[in-house]
Amino acid sequence: MNKWVSKKPMMTALVMTLSVGLAAGCGTDNNLSAPPENAPPQNTATDVENEQSTAGHEFTKFDLEVEYENRVKYEAEYKAEGNGEAEIEDDINEVSLKGDEAYTELSPRLEQLKFDSNADQQEVMTQVLEVFGLKDDYKEFELEVMFEDGTVKKYEEKK
Known about the structure:
Strand order of the largest sheet: 4-3-2-1-5-6
Structural class: alpha+beta
Order of helices and strands: HHEEEEHHEE
Oligomer: single chain
Helix content: 25-40%
Shape: globular
Number of helices: 4
Largest sheet: 6 strands, antiparallel
Number of strands: 6
């Protein structure tokens, strides 16, 4: 008797199992084929990061410092460079935040600001104080903003 005859059923089962597995892996449900030509562009990780960097607001840099009596300050900084940076130093409420925590706090506030590079200084300052919940009895107000178009504006006032 041929030695392959007794192993033939095992070999057949192995080949069939591998064939079924290979066929299942080659199905079209894996979305590995190229998208149709008229499909909308897909977001890459970089696209998503760029969208988040200025999501909902028009600033690529926002640097605010408001100083009150007795050297009490409110500082908020946001930069969209790289992965983005954010920081809050709030002496009024004794809060210090960096990174994602600061961005989570700043982002909704930046979205509420509706001024552009042509806005009047007093309008900008009033909006910022209101949105950030700051009093207008400050000693010094300094804000530097870079808009998405690259325009940089500074708003300053000392009392």
